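Shipment paperwork, digital attachment
Item: protein structure file
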Amino acid sequence: MKAITRRTFLRAGGLATAAVVLDTAAPRVTLGQAPIKVGFPVPLTGPYGAEAADQQAAATLAVEEINGRGGVLGRKVELLVRDDQLKPGVGAQRTKELLENEKVDFVIGGLSAAVQMAINEQTKKAKVIYVSISQSNEITARPDWSPYTFHEAINPFITSHVVGSWAIQNLGKRIYVLYADYAFGQQLRDGIKLVAEKSGATVLGADPHPLGATDYSALFPRVQAAKPDVLVLANFGKDQLNSVKQAASFGLKSQMKLVCPVFLGTMRREGGPTVFDGVYGGTTFYWEIGEKIPTAKRFADAFRKKYDRPPYDYAGYAYSGTRLLLEAVQRAKTTEADKVIAALEGHTYDYYKGKQWIRKCDHQSFQDVYVLKSKKDQKAEHDIFDVVGRVEASEKFERSCKDLGHA
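Attachment content:
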C-alpha cells in the first residue's frame, strides 16, 4: 500500500482488464410481456441527496442500456424510484409499497446503514432479492443478513482498514477522529482504532458530532491541543462538506493532514479546490481510472454522454449493482429468486472498474479501493483528484464468514 504518483498509477499495466461488452444478440423486448420491475428506494431529499441523485442517474443508465439491447429475457426492465428521505421508517414503508402495490421483482438501493436494515427487513419477509448499494457492516452479518441479501458496496470495516492503514503508513501515526454519531461514523471510528492498535499508531481522541451538524468549531480546540499528525473526518454527505470547510477556516490543514475515509466527489465538487486542497481520502471509483481500465472508461463515457459530466463514487455502486442483478437474471433464465441467487453467489464480474466478486457465504462484493488527494490546480472542471494509492481487492481486509455468523 505504498503511495504512488498519478502518472505511475496510470502506467500500471496490471490494472488493465478486459471490457465487458453488452450482449447485442439478446432478443428484442416482446410486446405484451409484463416488465421486470426493480424498486429503487434512495434518499433524494436530505443531507445525502446529491449522492442519491447520482445513484438514480447511474441505475437509470444501466436499465436504459439493458433495455436498449433487448431487455432481460425479452422483457423490458422498469426502475421504480422512491424517496426514503434517509429515514428508516419511511424506507420501510416505501419498500413495502413497492413490494405489495407495485409487485416489484427485485429491490436495489439504500444510502445509510439504518435505512438499509429497514429495507432489508421488508425484502426478507417477502423473499425478494435486495442489492444494497451503500456501506454497512451489519447488512452481511447475521441476524440481519438473509439468503436474499446482497451487498455491492464495501463497508466501514473494509474502508477503515484500507484507508486507515494507508494513512498510518504514509501520513503519520498520531490520529484524531471526528465522527458522525450514528452507525456509519461509529463503525469507521472503531475500525480506525483497531487498525491503529495493530499498526502501532495512537488514537489521541475520538469525538462525535450529530448527523447534519452545521457547526464544528467547538470540537477543533481539542483536536489542536492533541497535536495529531492526521485528523480523520468519519462522516458523509453535507457533514463531510461542512466539517472540511470549517477545518480549513480554522487553520487545521496547516497543522495536520485531513483524511475522509469515504471521500465524496460530489462534496469535493461542491466545496471547490481551495477548501479541499491537500485533503486525502478513500473511494472505490474515480472516473479517471478509465485511462487504464476499459470498463471504467466505457461507464464514464456513457454517463458523460447522457448527463454531460462524469460519474462519481456512489454512482458506480448503483450502476454495477443494477447490472449485477439483471445480468444474473439473464444467466438464470428466470426471475425465480432461488435460481437468481445461485447465479449471483461466487460470481466474478467487471461492469465498471475492474474485477469484482461476490463471496458465497455472505454475498459481499470485493473490489479495489483507491486513495485520493484533492487537487488545487485543476486542468478541467471534473479533474479534482490525484490517485495516490491503490489497494487491490482482498478478503483479508474483511471479517471472516465465521466472524459474521455464517457457518
